[in-house]
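In the current project phase, the collection of sequences with tokenised folds has grown. A sample record is quoted in full directly below:
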Amino acid sequence: MEPSCGEAAFLLAAVNRLIALGGASQSAPPPHLDGVELHAASAEAASDLLRAAGVEARVAVGDFFTFGPTGSYDAVIGNPPYVRYQDFSGESRARSREAALRAGVPMSNLASSWAAFTVHAALFLKRAGRLGLVLPAELLTVNYAAPVRRFLLERFARVDLVLFEERVFPEVLEEVVLLLAEGYDEGPTDSFRVFQFRDAGDLTGTPVVRSWKPDDLDAKWTPSLLSREAHSAFSSLIEGDDFTTLQTWGETTLGIVTGNNRYFALSPQRAAELGLIPSDLVRLSPPGSRHLRSLTFTDAALDELGAAGSSTYLFRPAGEPSKAARSYIKAGEVSGVNHAYKCRIRPDWWRVPLVPQSDLLLTYMNADTPRLCTNRARVHHLNSVHGVYTRPEVKRLAMDYLPLASINSMTLVGAETVGRAYGGGMLKVEPREADRLPMPSPDLVESTKARLVEIRPQVGGFLRAGRLAEASHLIDDLLLVGALGMKRSDVRALREAHAELTARRVARGGRPGSAAR
């Protein structure tokens, strides 16, 4: 069966393949072929093309999600429609979620159409059946696909993925992966194989093949994109004692949610114009994270930003507002700020709930990689960055050295595997994902802190100049090669993996989302 068959491209290819295999001829028709297509004109065209090929196939017209699973097909093949969640709503979304739930697979509101489609398509297979789909590479990398990944590993005996170094369908602006799953209802399996080719024309060649076992069934499959050498180096560090996770160092949380940053975040000049007094204001890391690309955020840096017009204060009267603050509150009500959801649910709409000043600040929208920055200025932060609250026993070590030690290739690769690609190719890391960021262990940092101090000025200079690669090379040489004795070839494999994963993310973000059909 080919669901969402369009003009039956996959069914026609199936006819040719069956003939080549000797399973069909003019005198012996091929096994039964079916299609489903939403648009009547396309369904009619598909039927005509199949008849012209000598096949009497049945092409039903309708929404695939309205067809109840039959459990009767040896194989389901095709190319699901890629409809983004923004355009996938109403009855269509409701039907898709209901179809996926038949298999016990819940779908997030952020899921694109292909996710539920993949699950629903599998339900049409008989035991030991095979599933072959062209899917977006999001299968590997996005959180909403976690239930699909779990379903595939739980229900199939074998799962293979075919990846391409170059874009296969340039005209459809989508990076794809071929999913080949066998042995339906004969699972589970705890791993999958990855076949990597340069492009579709290389499919007849010899692929790079490796196996990947996810940490857990819901984990992203992004690490499967690593080369064999990078995978080996990455896994050995993860499984050893010298690298841990950021969660070992402390707790990562969201920042302050104001409801209206333009109103609540003020520059020193604006605060002075309004006549606000110190008790009306709280010192603030300005919105965004551009200013947190160095190793430390200091009082001097805060003052410099304020002098340049950045919003380094949060309007947040601690007690009774001053006269000037009351005037500003009235102005906010005139302009409707108090009607924003986060404002109107507060007892005093203008009193923003604070979160404590964190020890470290972590950028979560990144063009290159998440950065840790020591909060020496002891400022509050908005939800444009995360706060890391370190454990008491490692607080001093973390604040003095962790932002520096984290600029290593292992952590850079780890960020690409736990984070998610966002609009414009940005790498977004939520607190739960940040918890899993690979970090040098406290013992490793403690044993190398004297040498970290020596190279700190040079690393800081590279970071200020936007030369992340050079900065990470210095840390790699100190931590990975010097302290851990890693082979330079293994470190080089990690560097190349980071460059490749970053390039994939940027390439995906540099083009608009679109349907693949």
Summary: Residues 511-517 have pLDDT under 50 and may be disordered. The first strand starts at residue 34 and ends at 37. DSSP finds 19 helices and 22 strands in the chain. The CA atoms of residues 284 and 312 lie 5 Å apart.
